[in-house]
Amino acid sequence: GVNRTIDTVRHLMRKYPNSSFRLVIGTDVLPERHLWKNFDELCELAPPIVLGRKSYPCPEGWEASPPLPNINSREIRSKLKRGQPTTGLLPNGVEHYIREHSLYGVKKS
To answer: pTM of the prediction?
Structure first.
């Protein structure tokens, strides 16, 4: 179903009230932040750690790390759904967990 980051963070905060959370996002996502549900509240609840992405400059007012390798979550999810290998994109244990739990629309292996 539909999963919004703000809803996940709220759930985690209720489940782990003594913990604090951070949102890790790439500079490629920042231009789309207006599309996110309650992005400003999300930033208050889980202050972002912004990771630099090659070819995606950091918008004014944000600070990012040096660029990371050119890997993105959409590409990984797409490959997983199509049954294509994700070698070099995900640790084997992570791919196994995704397949075992049928995450992201991936059929259980």
So the answer is: 0.60
